[in-house]
Amino acid sequence: MCPHASGWDDAVGLSVESLPYTLLLLLAQFSAGVAVLVLFVQLRGGFEAGFVRICSWLTVSGAFLTTLTALFIDASASADAYLLDADLLRPARAASLALLLFGLAHIIFLQRDDEPFLANATGATTAGLGAILLILLASLVRLPAWSVAGPLLTFFAGALSLGAFTVAMIWGHWYLVNPRLEEGPLNELTLIAIAAIGLELAITALNAIVPVGAPFESDALLAVALLTAACGSGDTDTAGADATKSKVPIAITIRVRSFFAYSLTRASSSSLRTMSGLLLHVPDHEDEPELRNGDH
């Protein structure tokens, strides 16, 4: 543990004040992204009904956690050194609650085969509310950014990445249950996931080039000066045994004057990093004997 000023209390530059907002941003992107991908697989067809229902429950679960987080956050004008528009937290709470309620309505109509229009309508409304929630949250954190477009594009790209990887991962594992499923739907989801990564990288590059609107002090990753020492270095003037002691490692980070430095904690900005460990597993020919024996 390394001492830090202004609420930064550990070696990785973690701001306790920003954690609730970080959690809110990630949960909102997850909920909105899954809602959009659920609408896509529902309208496209070719996916099993049980799969669509499971993914819709993910939307509701994410919306529930988003609503709880938004309700328990105290509206503040700043999180550590990062300025916030606290007046937008109230409408963000309302949007997350509406997302939760319409997500539940969507699940209800998905259970009924005789109401395809209402199932599509509630699904589209849920996805739309997810987009509205991201717009409100982008406005919440826009003050230090070069424009509200910076956080908005970042949130949209992050939501698409989270939603695409989550839905594609679940559908990929669906092949373990039924390996005779067509390849087309999985290939399309995989292409969407790859496109989402490319989009997020492009938006990250844009935000890294455009200067921030209001610079702020932060020790977060991508927001500190190059070659910043985390805790100081070892004493090189001592003789004897002390002279053989190695220096404390220097934390090398890069200063990026952009909205991408909005990261309220070290890990908040990149949903790409959050989802990078998810792998699509599709059974190959070596798996077929096991699948026939019902091992999966």
Q: Notable features of this structure?
A:
296 residues, mainly alpha, two-stranded antiparallel ribbon, 8 helices, 55% helix, 1% strand, globular, disordered N terminus
Question: What would your notes on this structure say?
Answer:
By secondary structure, the protein is mostly helical. It has one domain. The chain contains eight helices and two strands; from the N terminus they run H-H-E-E-H-H-H-H-H-H. It has a two-stranded antiparallel ribbon. Strand 1 and strand 2 (82-83) form a beta hairpin. It is globular and about 55 Å long. The two termini are 44 Å apart.
Task: Summarize this structure briefly.
With 296 residues, the protein is mainly α. It has helices at residues 19-44, 49-72, 89-110, 116-140, 149-177, 184-209, 271-275, 288-292, and strands spanning 78-79, 82-83. The protein has one domain (19-212, 271-292).
Radius of gyration: 22 Å
Structural class: mainly alpha
Q: Count every beta strand, where a strand is a DSSP E run of 2 or more residues.
A: 2
How many strands, what sense, and barrel or not for the largest sheet? 2 strands, antiparallel
Low-confidence stretches: 1-6, 221-284, 290-296
Return the domain count. 1
Give the helices and strands as they follow along the chain: HHEEHHHHHH
Biggest sheet: strand arrangement: 1-2
Q: What is the overall pLDDT average?
A: 74
Q: Write down the oligomeric state.
A: single chain
Helix count equals 8
As a percent range, the share of helical residues equals: 40-55%
* Spatial separation of the terminal alpha carbons: 44 Å
The geometry reads as: globular
Strand percent estimate: under 5%
